Amino acid sequence: MIILLAAAVTVLGGTAGTTGSPPALSKQDRAFLVQAHQSNLAEIAAGRAAQEKTGGQEVRETGEAVREMGMKLVGDHTKLDADVRRVADQLGVELPDEPSQEQRRQLEEVKAKSGADFDRAWIAAQVAGHRQSLADGRKELQEGSAPEVKKLATDAEPVVQEHLDMLLKVQAGESPGMTESPSPDMTESPEPSPTES
Fold this sequence. Notes:
Elements: H1 2-11, H2 27-52, H3 60-91, H4 101-111, H5 115-143, H6 147-171
Protein name: Putative membrane protein
Domain DUF4142: 28-167
Region (Disordered): 169-197
């Protein structure tokens, strides 16, 4: 009888005494979900700005690298944010609709520049933002308690680190070496092979 009861609890996905509501989250888990979401929104907005405003003729190579990085940030952070929103929704965490006031202020400052000044300011802001995102993720891994939230931090780390490495190369005047992100592509379906047609 006890084994049957334990099996029923396992099949129903809970433990005795649960009400079916989302599990209680720590302050750290909630804070990370909000931070990650706002960081993704800020990176998407910054990526779009980079695609619209890049350096002039004198910095053509850097301007092109900034534009390419902008496209990459929009794609990768859109994918990362879809996961953050899904987990937040499952756990009943309400997310803000826009980046933080500081993130918005910083982007407006960068967007007020033009040409090479824009490129340099954009790169510097992105380096700082990606370093902060990595620090936020490490804090979640150390202090968070919800496995699904910690998984977000684990899954985002290689993508954010790749962005930071590429940004540092551009900042140093090197080619960023654009590659496909280590995150799975959830927006495009693979091309069918000739045998599937």
